[in-house]
Design brief:
187 residues, three-stranded antiparallel beta sheet, two-stranded antiparallel sheet
């Protein structure tokens, strides 16, 4: 699965979360978040394998270029040995062989440079994707770590729950009576 798609799903999960009134925090479905993170862990090695395949392709292209260069050099040598009979032809053959060798080296260097540039572009793109994903994960972790805890005390003999919060004094909640609207407010 595409890592970018998983990041989008994680972002959607956060957007769908329930916003805690009066705070910048959002509650998200932990099970769904962990499932998406697990899928990310699976997807990241796939992208690393893709980068490895790209490097293997580069190595294959380089090996083929080196084989081609060696073949051209061998052909040039053979050709020059065949022309040894006449001195002028020998000189021309040497010049031609050197030219072919130089051209083969230039072509091999060009193929190597292009393969290296391609791999560098692919690895940079992969790095950017990982950096973006890592930023998203870190932001999610930071949000989850810095949520303000709320202390809840239950008094079993009164069937009430007291919630202690810095912004609001202790308010008993009685589960035996219906909820009441705030003064001047509507339900």
């Amino acid at each position: 699965m595409d890592i970018q798609h998983l990041v989008d799903r994680l972002e959607d999960l956060i957007d769908e979360g329930r916003h805690l009134f009066g705070t910048k925090f959002t509650m998200v479905d932990e099970e769904r978040a962990l499932e998406i993170i697990d899928q990310m862990r699976i997807s990241v090695p796939e992208e690393i394998e893709q980068a490895a395949r790209t490097i293997q392709n580069r190595d294959r292209v380089l090996a083929e270029a080196n084989e081609e260069a060696a073949r051209i050099v061998q052909q040039a040598r053979q050709h020059s040995e065949d022309l040894i009979d006449e001195q002028e032809m020998v000189k021309q053959a040497k010049v031609r062989a050197e030219y072919v060798i130089e051209q083969a080296k230039i072509e091999a260097a060009k193929i190597t440079r292009e393969a290296d540039e391609y791999v560098l572009v692919q690895l940079n793109q992969l790095e950017q994707q990982f950096a973006h994903t890592l930023d998203e994960i870190r932001n999610g972790i930071q949000i989850m770590q810095y949520e303000e805890p709320v202390a809840v005390e239950v008094e079993p003999e009164h069937s009430t729950v007291e919630v202690q919060h810095e912004d609001v004094g202790p308010n008993p909640i009685n589960f035996d009576r219906p909820a009441q609207a705030p003064i001047g407010g509507r339900i």
